[in-house]
Amino acid sequence: MIRRGLHIPIVIGLLVLLLMSCSRSAAEYSKDLDNADRVISFNPDSALTILEGIEPSELKVDSLRAKYHYLKAYGHMVGNRSMISDSLIPFAHSYYRGKNKVNDIRSGAAYAWYKFWVGDTPGALAMLDSLTALPNVPDSLMIPTLRSRALLGASEYQGRQLIPIAKRLYELETDSIRKIEAQYLLLTGYEYAGETDSALYLTDQLISYARDHAWGEKQFQFELERAQLLTELGMNAESNQAVNEIFRKAGPDNGAADYLHFQYAMNALNTGDVNRAAHHLAIADSIASKLRRDDDAYFRSYSNLLHAMIDFKQTGRIKLTHINGLNNRQKERYNRMEASQWESERGALTQESRALALKAESEHKTVIILLISLVTLIVLGSATWIVLRRRQHERENEERIEALQKMVEEYRSAPTVVAATAPDDSSALRSAMLRQLGIIKMVAETPTEQNREMLRKISSLDGETNGELVDWKNVFEIIDNLYSGFYKKLHTKYGDVLTPKEEQIIVLMMAGFSTKEISVITCQTASTIYVRKSSIRKKLGVPEKEDIMVFLRNMEES
């Protein structure tokens, strides 16, 4: 029996382990974050996928929380994704400051780009400036930081501030292509700073490098840049020659034909040839509408300004339509930038909503698992309790059966003992009768079919039971011997009003049997016993609030 119950605590133990496994440990989270950190620089998508499997609210340790938010923001920055949702990157950067130089620099760069994404470009530039000013930073960390600073400065048309940053970046870069990019950023800085001669010198170097390395597209771009710089220097004829050379190499239908004719128009306007300027500007507009179609707003933002200048030269008046066109193009460009930012924010919100939905789904599944586990535990606990109770009852029944069997054997030997005892010594007889009454009470307490059958056999030793559980004649004799002739007195006084069943109930009540036990011995339901007790009370004239047995004892004494 014990072996059969061993599986229950084992199953409960397994369920406890299952519940414990529903919550991940800090070591598991740390392992996932380390895996994301290893791949984030060259495969940000994989790193972000790993991070999506982590619920940040479950990260209770500051080191894990800081690393999660740093990696998430840095992955968005490297992957050129929206950073609108990375509002906790300041916490990560503050945590790493002065502790871990690599994470300090990288989280600071991510913090700067977050500022840029939320519209705080001056704050982003200031943050990058503070990072590039840090001492003893390895080149592997300083180069990408300088690169970010230079690109952001170029997008903001910085000149003087951009030049030293681009120079420093050019000196640190080791990859040849990256050095060319740094040199182009330096060219941009010279151009915005008004140092056109220096810009032109760098342009010539870039054209030579592109020619030597067969970079046709880059060479085309640099030569166009050179033509524009020549115009800035007032060298309009040289600029036209540069544009002619580009058309000769790339053909009249090249991808920048509208900008090349625009350059012709500017050179003509600068030399006072207004009609030639208008002619080339009309060609540029026509090419732009065909070449760029709906994406020609950027070109027309320049074209409208030149149209206004040409009209003023031709008519001496400034037309409001050109000013409106210029303003509308700028507004259209601004609206597109706004729409792009809104789209990025909407994408970020969509990603957050998807993450929240996945979190809710995961929590829902966890709740279901917990509920199922709880129900299973309750069922198994109840089953365990039932099994234990059943085993206890079985043990009690076995003990009762053993005791009953022992009583039967003692009872069978009782007549011999009584016969050998002197008539005036009634202790042995009384003991035998008490045993017999005890047997009847034990069966009444545990009325199994086996016990009932044993009681019938015991009762049939001294007489006929006539289908009853006991021989009532023998029971009445026992009651008379144990309780001073109680049954004889009862039968003499009330035998004509009480039924045999009612007399049986009364004598059993005298022997201390409960209602349930009386119902077992008399083979009646408990409800019937209650009804018969009410009848007895009326027949004997027992007051409503007085106990029947107290009334009968008082009657016996009187």
Description:
This protein is mainly alpha-helical. Among the domains are: 1-16 and 366-420; 252-349, no CATH class; 427-557, no CATH class. 77% of the residues lie in helices and 0% in strands. It has helices spanning 7-21, 26-39, 44-52, 62-78, 89-96, 101-117, 121-132, 139-155, 162-172, 176-192, 196-212, 216-232, 236-250, 257-270, 274-291, 297-315, 320-419, 427-445, 449-459, 472-482, 486-494, 500-510, 515-521, 526-540, 548-557. Helix 2 (26-39) runs parallel beside helix 4, helix 4 packs across helix 5 and helix 8 (139-155) runs antiparallel to helix 9 (162-172). Mean pLDDT is 81; it is low at 1-6 and 414-425.
Essential attributes:
mainly alpha; 25 helices; 558 residues
**What's the order of the H and E elements?**
HHHHHHHHHHHHHHHHHHHHHHHHH
The overall average pLDDT, rounded, is 81
Q: Number of DSSP strands?
A: 0
Oligomer designation = single chain
Q: Helical content, roughly?
A: over 70%
* Termini Cα gap: 58 Å
Q: Biggest sheet: strands, sense, closure?
A: none
**Uncertain parts:** 1-6, 414-425
**From the helix content, strand content and strand pairing, which structural class follows?**
mainly alpha
Count of helical regions: 25
Question: DSSP strand (E) fraction?
Answer: under 5%
Query: What does the radius of gyration come to?
Result: 53 Å
